[in-house]
Amino acid sequence: MKRILLFIFSVAAIHVHAQTYEPEKINPKAVKIYDQAIEKLRDGLLEQAIPFLQKAIAADTNYVDAILSLAGVYGELKKHNLSVLTYETAKRKDTLYFQQYHLPYSINLAGMGRFQDALNAVNYFLSVPKISDRSIKAGNYRKRCYQFAINYATTHTDNGYVFAPVNLGDSVNSAKSEYYPSVTIDDSLLVFTRRGEGFREDFMQSKLLPNKQYGKATLINGDINLEPSKGAITVSADGEWMIFAGNFNNGKGFGDFDLYISFYTPDGWSEPENLGPNINTEYWESSPSLSPDKRVLYFSSNRYGGFGGKDLYMSIRQPNGRFGPAINMGDTINTAGDELAPYIHADNQTLYYTSDGLQGYGGTDLFVIRKQADGEWGKPENLGYPINTIDDEGSFAVSADGSTAYYASDRSDSRGGLDLYKFELRNDIRPFRTLYVKGKVTDKKTNKGLPCTIELIDNSSNKALMKIQTDEVGEYFITLPLGKDYTFTVNRKGYLFYSELYELKTKAADSVYKKDIALQPVELNANVVLKNIQFETNAYKLLPVSLVELDKLLQLLNDNPSLKVEISGHTDNTGKPEDNIKLSTARAKSVVDYFIGKGIAASRLTYKGYGSGKPIADNNTEKGRAKNRRTEFMIVGL
Fold first, then answer.
1. Beta strands 258-265 and 268-269: pairing type?
2. Which of 9, 285, 554, 633 has its C-alpha lying 20 to 30 A from 610's C-alpha?
3. Which tens digits make up the pLDDT trace of 51-67?
4. Strands, E, within 444-520: which ranges?
5. Which pLDDT does position 510 carry in this prediction?
6. What is the pLDDT of the chain when averaged over all its residues?
7. Residues 491 and 535 both lie in one domain
């Protein structure tokens, strides 16, 4: 609004040269109508001003000030096409009078995605003599944005990508603003914030219906909505936790907005708990996002000691269940501007956020960062036009399939203010498509649930991608991003570890996994099949992927220093029996040699090759033969 009025009221002092347009000769009837439009604009009634401006122009088609004001209103309403057409009408009336308007003209050209034309227009604006320092600064800022957009387009091909946001409809959106969307891993629950009266904000939820549309949004029940002054909200991947920003006036807070957690119960969401001084300060904390394994909390804060206004921080949950001290995410991510709205995807490797400190299209843009092989975050990448525009972009979320994104926007079909939309995400900025495994861990003998640790290890780096604790009855939930091969391990002291291989690098998995796991207590003759010990073809040299499982067995041996084990090698029935015995024996010895090299006494280790003599599956099928080619360990001494 201030921009419009600035352009309207400053023109009289600008134009001193001869020109075609003569304001003093405008039809008085048109001027009177125009004055009515200006009153509407002063009151912020943009839509209501349009008919008055149109009538003023109709009363005198040479009324350039009215034409320019109408162009400004269209621009403010993001009707960039109409704004550009209207500016061009004014330009045809008087090119000299229009000189100062090349800046807003360029902004609306950029709003249409016409960045080269916008660059040409702003360059012309900057060449106008005697423009103010403020105008030069504004022009150069826009010039950098347009040049960035042009460069981005030359280095990123869209391959026919079409940006077509779909409004989530009247079931989700209202005449109020909706923002900060968050979804569970199966998309069954969408939670978001809705603006209420005054400073009130309400947390809403919408459940996915069989027709794949979200149903009527309702207030989230329980105590979570009692406090009126709230903000951003996020739901955990399994739908069991919600973390949100609140400004509580009940003595629970540390200062400005703090982060709180609420847990799902049969009676609704529990009374919110402040996340404590490791997370919250006397400053502002908001826009939380929780990793899929619930181990890492990402959020934004303007606390002292950052790189700019608002920075992104992370906190790692400790063994006692509490989140540890907040860690600034560093100057690769944070800038002298504001970083907000982090969203960690279910793949636990892709983080989206907004920044106005990194070069972009104008205002606040959306960026993506990805975890590298060493576990560190890579460099931010702009999501590009038309996801990012010349305006401010805000809260953002991506479904587990990696293709559907949700965001808040005030597009032309908004029900009022910001609405929630969904759209297909461009391939090059998608996260890994993610499935999940869930089940229960029990004692093999008693069938009682076992609290224990579960890790998902990236076989290419031998690093834990995710690490979770089961609940008190042994139930667990862990995500499985496609695109990598993993070893899934379950550990508890006093039990043999369990492992499972998930090869998802090339396999097109299309369903979730249900895996109930019975752990074998450490006892004499207990044995485990090592499912990810691999050797070179027809040889006994261990492949690097074997280290994941070998190191788990090494940990077991170190934790139980009196334990003695036998490593046994097995083959299918292909080839000569004597060759199979020889190969399986050599492979078992390779495993023993690995442990001896790691400091395990040779007296605790024995090995034996059984060839094809102890099959556990049908050797007449390839699937059965693959199961028979295995390495096992058995406890032979306590």
1. antiparallel
2. 554
3. 999 999 999 999 999 99
4. 453-458, 463-469, 475-481, 485-491, 498-503, 513-514, 517-519
5. 63
6. 90
7. no
Find residue 435's DSSP bridge partners.
480
pTM: 0.85
- Apex CA 499: angle with CA 498 and CA 505, to 5°? 165
CA–CA separation, 165 and 405 (whole Å): 9
How many CB atoms are located within 10 Å of the residue 339 CB? 29
Phi, psi angles (nearest 5°) of residue 136:
-65, -45
- Give the CB-side neighbour count of residue 555, counting CA atoms within 13 A: 16
Classify residue 222 by its DSSP letter. B
Question: Residues 322, 191: one domain?
Answer: yes
In a domain, 63, yes or no: yes
Q: 348 in helix, strand or coil?
A: coil
Ramachandran assignment for 222, one of left (phi > 0), alpha (psi -120 to 50 degrees), beta (any other)? left
Q: Are residues 136 and 10 in the same domain?
A: yes
8 A C-beta contact, residue 399 and residue 187: yes
Evaluate whether 587 touches 547 at the Cβ level (below 8 Å): no
CATH of the domain at 208: 2.120.10.30
Last residue of a domain, one of 429, 452, 468: 429
Domain around 321: 166-429
Secondary structure of residue 457 in the 3-state scheme: strand
Question: Reduced to 3 states, what is the DSSP secondary structure of residue 412?
Answer: coil
Residue 210, preceding peptide bond in cis (omega within 30° of 0): no
Burial-class residue 342 by CB neighbours within 10 Å (0-12, 13-18, 19+): buried
Domain assignment of residue 160, yes or no: no
> What does each C-alpha distance from 175 to 206, 349, 423, 457 come to in angstroms?
17, 36, 21, 46
Q: Which residue has the higher pLDDT, 4 or 291?
A: 291
The string of DSSP letters for 277-293 reads TTT--SS-EEEEEE-TT
257: confidence class by pLDDT, cuts 50, 70, 90: very high
Amino acid occupying residue 523? E
Give Cα 334 to chain centroid, integer Å: 16
Query: Can you say how many angstroms the Cα of residue 36 is from the centroid of all Cα atoms in its chain?
Result: 47
Same domain, 316 and 170: yes
pLDDT tens for each residue of 523-552: 999 988 888 888 888 888 998 888 888 988
Q: Is 227 in the same domain as 341?
A: yes
End-to-end CA distance of the chain: 80
Q: Do 370 and 349 meet the contact criterion of CB atoms below 8 Å apart?
A: yes
Distance CA 84, CA 106 (A): 9
Residue 183's CB: how many other CB atoms inside 10 A? 26
